[in-house]
Amino acid sequence: MRRKDLADKQGAARASAREPRQARGRERREQLLDAAAALIAESGLAAVSMHAAAERAGASIGSVYHFFRDKGQMLDALAERHDAELQPAFDRVLQRSDAEWAALSPAEVVEQLIGWAIRYFVRHPDALATLDLHDQTMHAEFRAVIDRVMRAKLGEELGPQAATTLDAVVLGTLLFTREQDPRSRDVVVAALPEMMATYLIALEAKRKRTKR
């Protein structure tokens, strides 16, 4: 989930957004980001512009340009805000031991590995829209965690297979739903945990049969 490397690359091409020092400035900046988030949730990324964010927030266009150089910088700031909220939960995933993962039920594994993130994206459609799902560093980190957990849960034979499948299902679905109508997106994303838990239950049963 980390975007540090992505942020470094973006920073080389785009100066950092202005960080206000006073509380009033921080509040105004957050209002502008909230406005951009609302526009994305309602109509997608195409609806976001500096003028649209200013109008939605009840701010002057000069106020928007005071904090953000352009639309891209504003979206970067929005993505970074979500990263800061997601990172503690992802850290907890990393800190859980293999033995702890192995002791969980399939539904608990899905919930604690992926479910919390899916719910976050359902609550925050703008996070799904601004998440760079093509960033290779972030994807590799996410895949490594899934692979470790699946090996702990299903063993060396079925674990890698499950990791590959879950990785493809989660990232593929998020990419697909990012461009869909909000109602359709919410239905699809919300259904993912149960689908993945059912898949893991089937693999557990298969593993038990092969051990006999």
Short description:
The chain is mostly helical.
What descriptive keywords fit this protein?
single chain, 212 residues, mainly alpha
What's the layout of helices and strands?
Elements: H1 4-13, H2 23-43, H3 50-57, H4 61-67, H5 71-95, H6 98-103, H7 106-123, H8 125-130, H9 136-177, H10 182-211
Distinct helical segment count: 10
Query: What's the number of extended β-strand segments?
Result: 0
Q: What percentage of amino acids are in beta strands?
A: under 5%
What is the CA–CA distance across the termini? 39 Å
Question: Residue share in helices?
Answer: over 70%
The secondary-structure class comes to: mainly alpha
Structure overview:
With 212 residues, the chain is mainly alpha-helical. The chain contains 10 helices and no strands. It has helices at 4-13, 23-43, 50-57, 61-67, 71-95, 98-103, 106-123, 125-130, 136-177, 182-211. α3 (50-57) crosses α4 (61-67). The longest helix is centred in the C-terminal third of the chain and has 42 residues, at 136-177. The two termini are 39 Å apart. Residues 1-7 have low confidence and may be disordered.
